[in-house]
């Protein structure tokens, strides 16, 4: 009876992967011989100074291959310490990681890392094989020359008051309300005009005389346009300026496939995803409005699925030149 009760007790499902030793068993079960390393071009002729430096300090001569962008996709076991080991190997080889994205997959014990770095083909291939030899790493794929879908997410907080109020908004705290460090600064009086004391009779007469003196002098008025103090904005004018900037930001975001996800009194938050170059172009167009803060994720890639078409050559012969103006942006 006790055995029957123990058999009917619900138990959690067994884990798909017990620990990282399963990675070693997988590598032994599926042996694969990697292709030879790419040839690293090195200069054949060396000067005496370079030869002596190489003998004394044992420094290899630099390669002639160009530095280019590489995208590595690592399938790792989901356990603590994997990220530090991967970054330690890349740092030991002198790589600067441009972006790094780590996320869980649909499998419970499997995570995925997408690493973007710059380097020579031979050196990056050596680092890739060294990463693949680590125990908690299942495989490391190089997507540099693969047709992939690349996406990057951007969150940007933009001012709707204008670029001239950006410095004061940065002093305003979490609300980003304009706050001037100098009470006599120009932009603060625009949004928060203070009542001025009533001028005396002598000051009124002097201002009237000065106005009468320069009323016919148009050239002098033209010279004083750059030094005159502007009239403070009324609440209606400030509201109209916010509405115009908000509409311009919304139209610009729609052009890039983005959208406004938060609206506050003095700023908005814009969300946009796309390729890295497209994200950088969108940021450069947002800077004239006043970019308060921005946050970007790393690059995420997924290889395209090839389509087998028997009549591919015939279709290419029948298709003419495509007008670039008819294509969508990007």
Automatic annotation (TrEMBL):
Residues 189-199 have a biased composition (Basic residues). Pfam families: ACT_AHAS_ss, ALS_ss_C. The keyword Amino-acid biosynthesis applies. Residues 173-205, 309-330 are annotated as: Disordered. PROSITE patterns: ACT. The keyword Amino-acid biosynthesis applies. Gene3D superfamilies: 3.30.70.260, ACT-like. Chain A, domain 2. Pathway: Amino-acid biosynthesis; L-isoleucine biosynthesis; L-isoleucine from 2-oxobutanoate: step 1/4; Amino-acid biosynthesis; L-valine biosynthesis; L-valine from pyruvate: step 1/4. Keywords: Amino-acid biosynthesis, Branched-chain amino acid biosynthesis. One of its GO terms (cellular component) is acetolactate synthase complex. GO terms for biological process: isoleucine biosynthetic process; L-valine biosynthetic process. GO terms for molecular function: acetolactate synthase regulator activity. SUPFAM superfamilies: ACT-like (SSF55021). Belongs to the acetolactate synthase small subunit family. This is Acetolactate synthase. It comes from Lentinus brumalis.
């Amino acid at each position: 009876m006790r055995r029957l009760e123990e058999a009917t007790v619900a138990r959690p499902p067994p884990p798909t992967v017990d620990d990282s030793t399963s990675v070693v068993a997988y590598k032994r079960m599926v042996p694969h011989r990697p292709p030879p390393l790419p040839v690293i071009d090195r200069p054949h002729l060396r000067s005496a100074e370079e030869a002596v430096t190489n003998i004394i300090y044992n420094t290899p001569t630099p390669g002639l291959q160009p530095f280019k962008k590489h995208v590595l996709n690592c399938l790792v076991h989901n356990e603590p310490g994997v990220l530090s080991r991967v970054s330690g190997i890349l740092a030991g080889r002198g790589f600067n990681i441009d972006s790094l994205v780590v996320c869980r997959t649909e499998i419970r014990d499997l995570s995925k890392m997408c690493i973007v770095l710059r380097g020579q083909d031979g050196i990056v291939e050596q680092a890739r094989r060294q990463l693949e030899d680590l125990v908690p790493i299942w495989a490391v794929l190089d997507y540099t020359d693969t047709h992939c879908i690349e996406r990057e997410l951007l969150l940007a907080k933009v001012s709707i008051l204008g670029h001239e109020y950006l410095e004061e908004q940065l002093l305003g705290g979490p609300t980003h309300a304009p706050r001037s460090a100098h009470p006599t600064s120009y932009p603060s009086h625009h949004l928060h005009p203070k009542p001025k004391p009533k001028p005396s009779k002598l000051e009124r007469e002097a201002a009237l005389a000065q106005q009468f003196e320069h009323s016919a002098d148009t050239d002098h008025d033209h010279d004083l346009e750059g030094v005159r103090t502007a009239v403070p904005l009324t609440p209606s004018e400030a509201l109209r300026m916010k509405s115009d900037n908000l509409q311009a930001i919304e139209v610009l975001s729609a052009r890039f496939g983005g959208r406004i996800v938060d609206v506050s009194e003095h700023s908005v938050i814009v969300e946009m995803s796309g390729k890295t170059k497209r994200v950088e172009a969108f940021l450069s167009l947002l800077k004239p409005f006043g970019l308060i803060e921005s946050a970007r994720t790393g690059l995420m890639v997924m290889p395209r699925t090839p389509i087998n078409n028997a009549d591919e050559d015939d279709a290419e012969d029948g298709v003419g030149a495509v007008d670039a103006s008819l294509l969508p942006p990007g």
